[in-house]
Amino acid sequence: MRCAISIHHTFDYSEIIPWRKRMRRKALIIGCLVMLLSAAAMGQGRLVKGIKVGQNLAMLSGSDLPSNIEHRTALTGGIAIEINILTLLHIEMDLLYSPQGLKIINGEEWRLNYFSLPVVMKKKFLPLGIHPYLLAGLEFNYLLSAKYGDENIKDDIVRQDMCVLIGGGIEFSIFGKGVHAEGRYKMGLDSIYENAEKGAYHRVTQVLFGFLI
What we know:
By secondary structure, the protein is mainly beta. It is built from 1 helix and 10 strands; from the N terminus they run H-E-E-E-E-E-E-E-E-E-E.
C-alpha cells in the first residue's frame, strides 16, 4: 500500500525584507572596516581629525507621501577623521548629528533625527595650496527620535537606515590650518517605514564646512 503525503506551503516574500536590510547593514559595516584597515595597511598613514558644521536640506521621496510637502532645513555637525592613503587620495569617516524628514506646507514637520556614520573616498586634485575634490561613499544612520508635530512616531520608523552619498568640495589653508567647504547629496536605500508595504526614502542635500584640528 502506498501512502502519498502532500505538503503545501505559501511563501510570504515580505519575510525576506528584514533579512535584506540586515544584510545591507552588515555589508556597510564590513565595508567600513575593510576600507579603514586597507588605509592603515597600504597608505601613507597620515591621520587628521576635525570638526564639521553645516546645514541639511532634507526631503522624503515616495508614492505614499502627501503632495503638499517641502524641505526641512536644520543644522548638522559632528567630528571627522581623514586618512591619507595615497597622494591626493583619502578616506574620511564622520560621526554627525543629522536632522532629516520633511515639512508639510502650512502644517507640521516630520522630524527624524539621526546619528550618521558616513565613510567616503575623497579624490583631491591640484597638488597646490588649494585642492578641489570629489567624494563618494556609504552612510549608516541610527534613529534617535522621530516626531510628527508633537506626536512620537518612533515605533513606525526603522531604527537603522543606509544611504549612498556623492559630493565635492574645495580644501585650503588659513593660518596653517586646513579648512574645507563641500556639498553632499545622499539617497536612502531602505524605506523609513517599519511597514514593508509603504515606501519613503531619504533625499538629503548637505552643505558642510570642516576645520582640521
